[in-house]
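The methods section describes the discrete structure representation at length, but only in general terms. An entry of this sort, consisting of the sequence and the corresponding backbone structure tokens, reads as follows.
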Amino acid sequence: MKQIKFIIPTLCLLCILFIPEFAMASVESSLNAIQQKFIGTILPLLSVIGLVWAGFSFLMGSPNARSHLILAIIGASVGFGAQSIVSFIRGLVN
């Protein structure tokens, strides 16, 4: 019974927040903000972490270090070039 008292208000709140008029936001602006946060912050951070991990693997003499390094470099190029890639695709679509 306690779970129902918690679940029903939570579902009502989520329903209200996901309706753009009630949330005081449009879906497009919310998606653009998420995209900018992902492209501008998360992807470069993950790229640096991947490069550090691959370098550490290489220094420790792991047998898969070369493949880790190659994949980290590919991931970093995608992570740091994501803004340009998205702009290029948007230019093709529009």
Remarks:
- The CA atoms of residues 20 and 27 lie 6 Å apart.
